[in-house]
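User: quick one - fold this with pyridoxal-5'-phosphate bound?
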Amino acid sequence: MPKWGDHMHSEHFGRQAVFERNESKVRSYCRSFDAVFRSAKGSFVQASGGEDYIDFLAGCGSLNYGHNDPDMKRALLDYVERDGIAHGLDLYTDAKADFLEVFRRHVLDPRGLDHRVQFTGPTGANAVEAAMKLARKVTGRTNIIAFTNGFHGVTQGALAATGNRGNRIGPAIPLAGVSRIPYDGYLGPQIDTADLLDRMLGDASSGIDSPAAILLEAVQGEGGLNAARPEWMRRVAAIARAHGALLIVDEIQAGCGRAGGFFAFEQSGIVPDLVPMAKSLSGYGLPMAALLIRPEIDVWKPGEHNGTFRGNQHAFVTARVAIEKFWSDGAFEAEVARKAGIVHDGLARIAEQVPGSRLKGRGMMQGIDVRTGEMADAICAAAFRDGLIIETSGPVGEVVKVLAPLTTPDEVLRRGLDILARAARTVAGQRATAAE
Ligand code: PLP
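Assistant: Sure. C-alpha cells for the protein plus pyridoxal-5'-phosphate:
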C-alpha cells in the first residue's frame, strides 16, 4: 500500500479548491477526509491520487452491500441500455412492479408483514415526514413522542423529532409537535424509561398531549449506537397501543441487515404500524426511500402526499437485485451475524487500550465510546492517514462508529480493525504522555 499522509500533493489541493470556492459551507463529511474520491469497489474506495482506503463508513450506511456490486451494476447497465424509464414520477413501471413483487416475496411475507409500500421523496427524511403526517391524519392528534438522541432527518417535521443539537440550530426554527422522552438506558440501568413513558401518557395533566405516534430507532445510529433492549421495545409497542398511538420504527440506518435481521425491530418480535426506510434500500447507494404502512391505516387520499421524485427507477432495479441476491434465504443474515462477531472482538481489543472506553451498538453497527468528541475525532483522523475511512456519532461525537459494508471479507474487516487499533493506541498514548 502507498504511505498514507504522503498524498497531499498539489493536484489534490487543486481539486479541493473547487469545493472551497463553489460549494456551500454546509458540506460536512468531506471535511473529515482530506481527499477527492473517484472510484470504489466492494469495501474499498480510491482517491484521485491512487490511494486505496478501506471504507468503514459505507456512505453512512447506504452501502450495506458494498460499492458497485457487480450484479446490481449489470442489471442497471442493462436497464439503461434498453432505454428503461428513467424519470421518477409515480407511473406504473416494470422496474417498480418487479421490486414490489420481490420485496413482498422475500422480505414482507416471510416475516408475516402485510404492510403496503409508499414511495416518498428519495431521502430518509422524506419517509419520516410521510410517517409523521400519516400518523397525525389517522389519529387526528398532533403530538409525536420521540426519544433523546434520536435522529430522523433534517427537514423541519423530522428535525422536530431529531435531538441532534448541531442540526436543530437553536431557537431560530420552530420545531413543534414533538415531546421528548428518555430512550432506553438514558437514565442508567436502574430506571426503565418505558415506565416513565407509560406514567406520563396515563396522567392527563402530565403536560404531554396524547400522541399520534411514538417514533423510535431500535438502534440509534447518529445518537451514539444506543441499542434498545427487546423487552423495552415490546413495552413501548404495548404502551403505544394502549394509548391509541401508532408505532413508527425508523429503520433508515439500522435496517437492511445492519443491526441483525432485515429489520432491526425483528429481534423484539413487534410489528410497527409505520416503518420509514432509505439508505441501503436501493443497495447501490442510489437515492430511494419508502414508508411501510399497515394496510388498515393506509388512509391516504390519492395524491395527498405528492412529489415529482417518488420512484427512482434505477434504484428499483438495483434494490430488486439486492433483495434477490441477499435476502432470498437466511444465508446472508447468518453470515452478517458471524462478521458482527469479528467486529465485536476487534473493538473489544481496542477498547482495552483506551482507558474509560466502552463498546456500543449491535450487529454491524458497533463502535467504541471514547468519552470525548475530540478523542474520537483524533482516532478517526489517525485512521484515515493510515488508510481507513471511519466516522463518529453520539451526542458530542464521542463514539467511533464502524459501519463497514456487510459484505466486507473477513480479512479486510480485520485489516480495518487493525488500522483502527493502531490509531487508538497512538492517540491514547499521546494523551497519556501529555497528561504526565
Ligand atoms: N433516520 C435515521 C435513523 C437516520 O440515521 C437518518 C440519517 O442518518 C435519517 C433518518 C435521515 O435520512 P436522510 O439523511 O437520508 O434524510
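One thing worth noting: The pocket of pyridoxal-5'-phosphate is lined by residues 60, 123-125, 128, 151-153, 217, 221-222, 250, 252-253, 278 (CB under 6 Å).
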